Amino acid sequence: MDYKKYIAQKIKVVGVSEEEIYSSIAVPPDTSMGDYALPCFKFAKVLRSSPVSIAQKLAQEIAADDVIAKITAVNGYLNFAINRGSFVADTLKTIEEQGARYGSSDMGAGKTICIDYSSVNIAKPFHIGHLSTTVLGSSLYKIFSFLGYNVVGINHLGDYGTQFGKLICAYKHWGNKEDVDRRGIFAVNELYVRFNSEATEDMEREAREYFRLIESGDKEANELFEWFKSLTLKYVDKIYERLDVKFDSYNGERFYTDKMQPVIDELKAKNLLKESDGASIVDLEEYGMPPCLILRSDGASLYATRDLAAAYYRKKTYDFDKCLYVVAYQQNLHFKQIFKVLELLGNDWAKDMVHVAYGMVSLEDGAMSTRNGRVVWLEDVIDKCVEKAYAVLQEKNPDLEDKADIAEKVGVGAVIFGALYNSKIKDIVFSYDKVLSFDGETGVYCQYTCARARSVLEKAGAFVAAYPAGYEAEEQEFEVVKALSRFPAIVKDAAEKYEPSIIARYAVDLSQKFNKFYFDCKILAADDGVRELRLCITRATLQTLENSLALLGIKVPEKM
């Protein structure tokens, strides 16, 4: 049962919708005040009365029943105490019935969401700066799929630009096929770094010519490019598999080269394209933005040109209800310009384009640059976390079987959780010790809580679910169940705000409440009836934590 909805249906305020009342109902920080509360301050203007009077009047109008045990008015708040016995039974039964689907819904049925994330740059290994876009986009993919949406994951490959002419030039001068075949993308990246530090003017001209050859369809130039591309995708696919990331489309910048002209023609037809110092722009000054550059003075296209073409293609191909771009906040202006140009072109769906901005990730020694070679590869970060996880497991539980597999799940989970725990817009300084803590606000802590709950259930053996009639749940029990009941709303909130951290923080909160319950309340040694109820709470917690972590892309080991 949705208790908030049940309560909202009981409250009648003239001039205020049930939906507005529902969204206003909150959980009080002090549970002695009640289980749910409605602040009446926002109704004062509509009803021309004080919040205190409104709360008192509503308290008199609403009768207690089998669900609502008590209604009180305190300082402008309408507080509700619910029948704990029925609430606990109802919540646990719902989780038992729904299992891995608990928290899901069909709210997205018939709707499509495109999510552009990760965006591999061909011939460049993933560094830690790619972590956020990859795991944030992947988590949003899982969350929206869980809510019934048709989700299209798009990896907008960075596979167009003069850098590929530079790469071919570098390979021609210094490359070795055997070395590239052996070391793959890392050998290719070294050639790119070397070009940027050692290239002569003649080589720069040569690189521009190689890029022209790629564009004109030259066989050798394109074979080299496709080779570099295949090496890149082979490399990143291994990382994606470890991070539980998937895509439905790998259409990158190059895919849109023959789809830009119709957009340019439409801009011209609607008198939006203007000349400025030889370049073609869309003037956005009246909207408080610098001009959006569409074509350089030499006629070359830019990111904006290709992104506009991609937007049209995605709308035509997928007819999306929302199109999300999971890209760092440094591109805020770029996407504001793109969305505004689409709007000026008369597309009402421009309002459905969303830039999901995020902060930067770095290690303690700061930022990185592929060009000068100062990078921290994401693969190395994952490997180091897995190694450290193995060492911690060896110390805590030397007899644990399948330690390598468990360490992989713990280490990879620590990396993902570390990137998703804080609000997406915050910059993150990645710390191995923090993300691998068994006691902190970490993925490891949540995984360990799952292992603890599973251990209790294994020791209990088979049992029949029981919800003792008239049983007044103890505070620790009720706090866990109340947290469990919030999960569907948490998932919906995370989707509406494009914020997986809401689920990550919920997982930590639920873990903390369960561990308090575990230490304060006897489970296996409890009296009959109460024992089975507490085992039901344990099983429901395990299921809900597994569901939460799955939406983040984190696997749960059987033991730890």
Brief digest:
The protein has 560 residues and is α/β, with parallel strands linked by helices. Helix content is 53%, strand content 10%. It has a domain at 3-82: Gyrase A, domain 2 (2-Layer Sandwich), CATH 3.30.1360.70.
Descriptive report:
The chain is α/β, with parallel strands linked by helices and 560 residues long. It has a domain at 3-82: Arginyl tRNA synthetase N-terminal domain (Gyrase A, domain 2, 2-Layer Sandwich), CATH 3.30.1360. Helices cover 53% and strands 10% of the residues. The chain is built from 22 helices and 12 strands. It has a 4-stranded parallel sheet, sandwiched between helices. Helix 6 links the parallel strand 4 and strand 5. The two termini are 34 Å apart. The mean pLDDT is 92.
| Beta-strand residue percentage | 5-15%
The top-level CATH class of the domain at 3-82 is: Alpha Beta
The overall strand count is 12
C-alpha Rg (nearest Å): 28 Å
